[in-house]
Structure formats: C-alpha cells, structure tokens
Specification:
The protein has about 100 residues and is α+β, with helices and mostly antiparallel strands. The protein has a single domain, classed as 2-enoyl-CoA Hydratase, Chain A, domain 1. Helix content is about 40%, strand content about 20%. It has 3 helices and 3 strands, in the order ββαβαα. It is globular, with a radius of gyration of 14 Å. It starts with 5 loop residues before the first strand and ends with a helix.
Length: about 100
C-alpha cells in the first residue's frame, strides 16, 4: 500500500480521490488536506471531467474526521489560522467545484 495520504486515479471523464490513512481511520491531518487541495487545484479547469469521487481505502469506515493528535502541534491561535482555514478552504472548494 502506498504511503501517500490521498491516492488519485482517473478513467475517462471521472477521477477518484481516495483517502489513504486506514491505520488512522482516515483521520484528516495537514498532509491529507494539502494533498486533497493539490488534486482539486490540478483538476479544477479540466472541462472533460464529469465526476469527482471521494472515497477511502478499506471497507470499515470512510473518515473519522480531524486527526486530533495532530492538532496538539498547534497553538490555539495557529489552530484557527492554519488548520481551520485549510479545512474550510477544502470544503468550499468541494462545494463550488466548477465541473
């Protein structure tokens, strides 16, 4: 299994973003958010794409939410500035994805 936090695959007019931290219940950390953001930016202007599927490896769970252990690395101020901003940016990008 790859050590990348998010796997990307493409077939014809669809692509798949796969959360890949099964050992952590796919809890979202900074590296995963950055990877998701990277892929969304990469495909944003691809007018041939009709479907972007967000899934996860394994069959026990999709995503546990935020990786609380990784939050301990942030001060409360940095938490608000960096982590929450990154997550909100990703969620807004998903909601407003042009294709």
């Amino acid at each position: 299994m790859s050590d990348q936090p998010v796997l990307f695959s493409r077939a014809a007019a669809s692509c798949r973003l796969t959360l890949n931290r099964e050992d952590k219940c796919h809890a979202i950390n900074e590296e995963m958010i950055e990877s998701l953001d990277h892929y969304l930016n990469e495909i944003e202007n691809d007018t041939t794409l009709r479907l972007v599927e967000l899934t996860a490896t394994g069959d026990k769970f999709f995503c546990a939410g935020g990786d609380i252990k990784s939050w301990s690395a942030y001060s409360p101020l940095d938490m608000g500035r960096k982590w929450i901003n990154a997550v909100m940016t990703f969620l807004i990008a998903c909601e407003t994805y042009p294709n």
